[in-house]
Amino acid sequence: TIDTKRFEGSYDNDIFFEKGFGEMYGADMAQCGYEFDDETLKNTMREFEEKNGRFLTSDEMCVLKEVPQEIRNCYKKLKQKTTDERLDDIFAQVEDKLPGGFDEKVFKNSYYMFAKILSAFMTYKPQKYDGKVNDFLCLDQSGFFMTGDIESLDYAKQAAPVSVNRIWTEGDHFTCMETPNIEKIAEILVGE
User: Fold this and answer.
1) 3-state DSSP of the chain
2) Taking the CA of residue 95 as centre, how many other CA atoms within 13 Å lie in the half-sphere pointing to its CB?
3) Quick one: pLDDT at residue 30?
4) Is 26 left (phi over 0), alpha (psi -120 to 50) or beta?
5) How many other CB atoms are there within 10 angstroms of residue 37's CB atom?
6) Which of 118, 117, 122 is nearest to 53 (CA)?
7) CA geometry: angle 135, 160, 4, nearest 5 deg
8) Which residues of the chain have pLDDT under 50?
9) FRET pair for 5, CA 20 to 30 Å: which of 31, 67, 97, 102?
C-alpha cells in the first residue's frame, strides 16, 4: 500500500475544525470566541505534528505546555460550551450570508457531515492506484485551514505512481463547487 499521510490516528480537534468551517462561511471567528492568532495556532499545530507524527487534540490544546498560554486559555473557554452551542454562535455570524433554505439545521448538519468525512479520511489507509488522477486545487487558498503547505498536502501527487494532472480551478475551498466553477470541473471529469 501507499500511505501518503504524514500522521496516524483519528482527527480529534473539533475547535480547530469549527474555526475553519466558520471561516469557510465568512464568520468573524474572533467574535465567536476563537480569539487566538492564526499563525501561532498553525505553527503550534505544525511543530507538534512534526515532533509527534499526529495532530494535537482539543483536550491537549487546553493543557499541554507546548501550546502557548493564549491558545490554551481560549480553548479552555471554548470547551466550556458544547459543540452545538459553539455552532450556534458561528451560525449567528453567517445566517444572513447563507443561501435561501440554508437554515440552522442544514448548517449544523453540514458541519457534522464534513466532520464525519474528515474523520473517515484521517483513518483511511490508501492503497496502490495505477489509474489516471485529476487533482483539482483552488486558486484562492485564503480559506485553507489545514496546517501544511499545498505541496505537502497534495496526496494525489504523492500517491499516484502515474502522472497526475494538476488542475487549478477558480474559487476557494467553498466557491469552487459553485457556478461557474463547478461546470468547468464537471466538463473535465465528463470529458475523460
Assistant:
1) CCCCCCCCCCCCCHHHHHHHHHHHCCCCCCCCCCCCCHHHHHHHHHHHHHHHCCCCCHHHHHHCCCCCHHHHHHHHHHHCCCHHHHHHHHHHHHHHHCCCCCCHHHHHHHHHHHHHHHHHHHHCCCCCCCCCEEEEEECCCCCCCCCCCCCCCCHHHHHCCCCEEEEEECCCCCHHHCCCHHHHHHHHHHCC
2) 10
3) 93
4) left
5) 12
6) 122
7) 90
8) 1-10, 147
9) 67
Nearest CA to 146 among 2, 3, 1, 6? 6
> What is the CA 105 to chain-centroid distance, rounded?
21
The x, y and z cell numbers of residue 145, run together, are 485551514
Cell numbers linked to 69: 498560554
Which cell numbers in the block locate residue 139? Answer: 486558486
Distance CA(35)–CA(29), nearest Å, equals 7
Question: Contact, 150 vs 141, CB < 8 A?
Answer: yes
pLDDT digits (tens, 9 = 90+) for 16-49: 889 888 988 889 999 999 998 888 988 998 899 8
- Predicted TM-score (pTM) of this structure: 0.65
